[in-house]
Design a protein that fits this description.
By secondary structure, the protein is of the alpha+beta class. Among the domains are: 68 residues, no CATH class; 99 residues, Elongation Factor Tu (Ef-tu), domain 3. Helices cover 16% and strands 33% of the residues. The protein is built from four helices and twelve strands; from the N terminus they run αββββαααββββββββ. Strands 5, 6, 7, 8, 9, 10, 11 and 12 form an eight-stranded antiparallel sheet that branches. Strands 1-2-3-4 form a four-stranded mixed sheet, covered by helices on one side. β10 and β11 form a beta hairpin. It is elongated.
Length: 257
C-alpha cells in the first residue's frame, strides 16, 4: 500500500468510527466471518500470556475487518513502585543537606578560607620579573659573579702568549741548561694536558755588566700545571746561565686538552 492509499484508507476508517453511535465492546477469541458495525471486537494478542489485558481492536466496516487499535499501554519509560521506592531511599532528606559552612567539615584537600586569609592574600604584590621588582638591590649580576668565581681553563681552551712579556727564570745546571720559568695564570686549570706552541723565543742573560741577548727558533718546552699557573721547563740553549737570572720572551699559544 502506497502512502496516498494508506492515508485515504485511514481517514475513511476514522470517519466511519466517528459516524458510529452507541458503540460497545465485545471480547471474542477470534473474529467472526462478518460483524456488526456497532461493536468493537476485542481479540486477545496470541503471543501474550492468558492473564494479559492486551487486545487488538477490530471493527466491521463496509464488509471488511479493520484493525483500529490496541489496548496495550507502553510503560517502558515509566518506573514501577519498587524502582521509585529504591531511588527515593538513596536520596538524602532536605533536612540532611548542609545549608551553612559551619555544617561542613574540612579535610586535607578541601579547606575553608577565612576573611583574614583573603585580606592577607589580596595584599600580596604581583609577581615580579626582576630582582628590583622584589626589592632586592644588593645581588650580584652574572658578570659580577663570573668575576668572583672564575671559570677554570678546561679542555679546548687556549691562551695566546704575548711576545715581549718578560718571564723571569733561572737555570741550575751548567750542562744542558734548563731554564725554569713560571707563567702565572688568572684562572685555575682543570684540563689534564697542556701543550705550548712557539712562534719565536728570545732569551736575555743578565750579567754584572749588562745582559747578553740571543734569539732561539728551536726550543723544547715542557709545561707543568701548578696551583696558580704553569711552570715551563725550557731546553735548547747553547750555553750555561751559571745560576744567573734569565729573562725569556716567548711568542706562541698554550692549548689545553
Amino acid at each position: 500500500m502506497d502512502a496516498i492509499t494508506y492515508a485515504l484508507s485511514k481517514k475513511y476508517t476514522d470517519n466511519k468510527i466517528a459516524e458510529s453511535a452507541g458503540l460497545h465492546r465485545q471480547i471474542v477469541t477470534s473474529l467472526p466471518t462478518t460483524g456488526d458495525e456497532k461493536i468493537i471486537y476485542m481479540v486477545r494478542v496470541s503471543n501474550d500470556n492468558e492473564d494479559s489485558d492486551n487486545y487488538n481492536e477490530y471493527m466491521w466496516i463496509d464488509g471488511n475487518w479493520e484493525l483500529i487499535g490496541n489496548t496495550r499501554v507502553d510503560l517502558s519509560d515509566y518506573y514501577n513502585k519498587t524502582q521509585v521506592d529504591t531511588a527515593l531511599n538513596g536520596k538524602a532528606n532536605t533536612s540532611d543537606i548542609p545549608t551553612a559552612l559551619s555544617q561542613l567539615t574540612a579535610d586535607a584537600t578541601h579547606r575553608l578560607v577565612t576573611d583574614a586569609e583573603k585580606t592577607s592574600w589580596n595584599g600580596k604584590a604581583n609577581s615580579a620579573t626582576t630582582l628590583d621588582g622584589y626589592g632586592i638591590t644588593d645581588a650580584y649580576t652574572k658578570s659580577e659573579t663570573d668575576e668572583i668565581f672564575v671559570k677554570p681553563y678546561k679542555a679546548g681552551d687556549s691562551i695566546a702568549i704575548e711576545y715581549g712579556m718578560p718571564l723571569y727564570g733561572f737555570s741550575f745546571s751548567k750542562v744542558n741548561p734548563v731554564v725554569r720559568v713560571f707563567l702565572p695564570l688568572s684562572k685555575p686549570i682543570v684540563a689534564s694536558n697542556v701543550n705550548v706552541t712557539l712562534s719565536q723565543a728570545n732569551m736575555q742573560l743578565i750579567t754584572i755588566t749588562g745582559y747578553e741577548s740571543k734569539n732561539y727558533s728551536l726550543l723544547t718546552i715542557t709545561p707543568y700545571i701548578k696551583p696558580n699557573g704553569l711552570m715551563l721547563y725550557i731546553k735548547g740553549f747553547d750555553y750555561s746561565t751559571e745560576d744567573r737570572p734569565v729573562i725569556v720572551k716567548l711568542d706562541g699559544t698554550i692549548t689545553f686538552s
